Amino acid sequence: MDARLLLVALCFVSVFSEPEYVIKKRCKDVDAEQCRINNVKVDPCPRSPNLCIIKPEKSYSISVDFTPKFSAKSLKLAMYSDEKKTNLFETAVRAPQDGCGLLTCPLQAEERRNFDVHFQLAKMSPGKFPIKMKLWNEEDESQACCFTFNVKVRK
Known about the structure:
Elements: H1 2-17, E1 20-21, E2 25-26, E3 35-43, E4 52-54, E5 60-68, E6 75-81, E7 91-98, E8 113-119, E9 127-137, E10 140-153
Parallel strand pairs: 4-10
Antiparallel strand pairs: 1-3, 2-10, 3-5, 5-8, 6-7, 6-9, 9-10
């Protein structure tokens, strides 16, 4: 009997410690034909897939599985939040940085790839809003992979 309880407890621990898929949306300002975002996981992401509950100054990671329709020698990556809900995504969560530090460059068209990004949100007011992640060809910003997902900030 004790072995069964231990097995059930281990199942719960493994279920709750896995990254969770989130519902992603295409970025309105990026040509969706340039990239296919296969799936996105956020760890931890309570209440997924519709909304991740995020606490400021706590570490999170995002795993992105994507297929670019373009090749690139060098990449840039950035994350922004839209806490004011203006669709402007003005607050940098991760300022633009070298994307080749996360992926091996060069990037080849039609080659399915994965990368992980770690992030923290700065102190901010509680509320629901989207976060935008964009990975683009440094030589041609119109060639990009971009998506948004929703979070709820709690204190």
